[in-house]
Write a structure and sequence with these properties.
The complex is a heterodimer of chains A (230) and B (250).
Chain A: H1 2-21, H2 49-65, H3 72-88, H4 93-135, H5 138-141, H6 143-161, H7 165-220
Helix pairs in contact in A: 2-3, 2-4, 3-4, 4-6, 4-7, 6-7
Chain B: H1 2-23, H2 25-28, H3 31-49, H4 52-98, H5 101-104, H6 106-124, H7 128-141, E1 169-171, H8 182-187, H9 198-205, E2 223-225
Antiparallel strand pairs in B: 1-2
Helix pairs in contact in B: 3-4, 4-6, 4-7, 6-7
Classes of the chains: A mainly alpha (230), B mainly alpha (250).
Chain lengths: 230, 250
């Protein structure tokens, strides 16, 4: 019996020791409990405003240039991550930030790959227009306008090499249109010249025929164009 | 031998190729036509170089010069025609003088001389239609002249139809400076005594010509038949030693 009492005393003492060890040194004030929102259990992540703005800007740039069609995989992934980032914004800012950062990376990939393809295509179109103008010798026929278009084309090449997609694409497009306009004018001028030359050649043939007819008439009358009679 | 034939054939081909362009060469040999040719050449060069505006401009200028060349051809054709008629008229007056027409056909002769002078003046003044008219008038004035025998025949002149001694053939001669041609052969008193009947001779003998379409090219030695006009009889070849009676000029 004594033995049970002793064991109970030991258990009780141990309980007290444990209870005392887990007891805070300062007792919280029980009188004014704080609201739960003001005391989050974990600290909240900051809203990824910078990432959101950057992703949005990149998306607008990609869409404005139509680069999505040149790199559809990255473009689709970027749009998906951007949407996810927007959806989780304010709810789970950490996840939002992560999605937006992924979107930024993917949009940059679209700009990098698609931009190169986009400019290559524009350059190809411009050079085709330039060749048509050159074939018509537009550099002579429409000298000033051709020089202007060619200057813009060279500027676009430099901008492309510098990675200035916006200006390069704009200048390629403008020079392409200018070359097309120059070609059209040169063709009109050429048509007019060919027509004038053909008319003159016809006049020449007619003049030769008139001279031959006159010569024959003189001969038939017994005269010659040396002035002597029969 | 083969080489010689080939060379001759080549020359013949070259001459043949040169005939056509030479035909109208003299009338086209004018500064306007040459200038037009130059301009056309320049226009083609400008076209090839892409200088289309200049090409069109040069072609237009060429057309202007071709129009001037046309005017020149018309003018020169009139000049050559007037000059030709004047030459015939002068020949006719010379012939008339040679047969004393200035005495025997004084009125006709004087008219012809005046017309020839007028034709010459008109020609110099570039009034070619008037020159042609006056030359034709001179030729017409002397159309009926013929040599007059110094001793009039005692008996009435027999009708040509009754004369058997007119020649039926005439052999073309080279009589410088008056060379035979259909016009002048027809003009002989023993032929038709009328140069305007040259076509009768030409039509009857064109098959003898190298180029039947060209009455201007006859060769010495060709033997032409002289078709009868219907009122005279003909026989044998013409003999320069024989004095033939003259046909009445009509």
């Amino acid at each position: 019996m004594r033995r049970f009492i002793y064991l109970g005393a030991v258990v009780g003492a141990l309980f007290l020791v444990i209870s005392c060890a887990s007891t805070p040194t300062q007792q919280p004030k029980q009188q004014t409990p704080q609201p739960q929102a003001a005391q989050p259990e974990q600290p909240a992540a900051a809203a990824p405003d910078a990432e959101l703005a950057q992703a949005k800007s990149l998306q607008q740039r990609v869409d404005a240039l139509g680069l999505g069609t040149y790199d559809p995989e990255d473009y689709a992934a970027a749009n998906k991550d951007f949407q996810a980032g927007q959806d989780s914004y304010g709810k789970d800012n950490a996840a939002s930030k992560k999605s937006l950062q992924a979107a930024i990376s993917e949009y940059n990939a679209v700009i990098s790959k698609g931009g190169a393809l986009f400019l290559a295509r524009l350059q190809e179109q411009t050079e085709a227009s330039k060749k048509a103008a050159d074939d018509l010798k537009a550099s002579v026929a429409v000298k000033d306008d051709y020089a202007s278009a060619n200057g813009l084309y060279k500027k676009a090449l430099q901008e492309k090499d510098a990675g200035d997609i916006e200006n390069a694409s704009g200048d390629f497009s403008q020079s392409r249109d200018d070359f097309d306009a120059v070609t059209k004018v040169a063709q009109q001028k050429k048509d007019a010249a060919v027509q004038a030359l053909q008319s003159a050649q016809q006049d020449k043939s007619a003049s030769e025929q008139k001279a031959a007819d006159a010569q024959k008439a003189l001969k038939d009358e017994g005269f010659s164009s040396s002035g002597s009679g029969q | 031998m083969k080489t010689r034939i080939l060379v001759l054939a080549g020359i013949a081909l070259l001459l043949g190729a040169a005939v056509v362009p030479l035909a109208a060469q003299s009338l086209l040999d004018n500064e306007y036509y040459h200038k037009a040719q130059d301009l056309l050449s320049q226009s083609q060069q400008a076209l090839d170089a892409g200088d289309y505006d200049n090409s069109a401009s040069l072609a237009m200028q060429a057309r202007d010069y071709l129009a001037k060349s046309d005017d020149y051809v018309v003018t020169m054709t009139q000049f050559y025609r007037a000059n030709g008629y004047l030459s015939i008229a002068k020949d006719r007056v010379s012939y008339a003088k040679s047969i004393d027409a200035d005495m025997n056909y004084k009125t006709a002769y004087d008219t012809a001389v005046a017309d020839v002078a007028g034709a010459k003046t008109a020609l110099d003044g570039k009034d070619y239609p008037k020159s042609i008219d006056l030359s034709k008038s001179a030729i017409a004035a002397l159309a009926n002249i013929a040599p007059v025998a110094k001793k009039p025949p005692k008996e009435p002149t027999p009708q040509p139809a009754a004369q058997p001694d007119l020649p039926q053939y005439y052999v073309v001669r080279l009589l410088l400076p008056r060379r035979d041609c259909f016009w002048r052969i027809a003009e002989y008193p023993f032929v038709y005594n009328n140069p305007w009947k040259w076509r009768l001779l030409y039509d009857a003998n064109k098959d003898l010509l190298e180029d039947p379409k060209n009455p201007n090219l006859i060769q010495p030695g060709m033997r032409f038949i002289i078709p009868s006009l219907g009122s005279e009889t003909r026989d044998g070849d013409y003999d320069p030693q024989v004095v033939y009676p003259a046909l009445p000029a009509k």
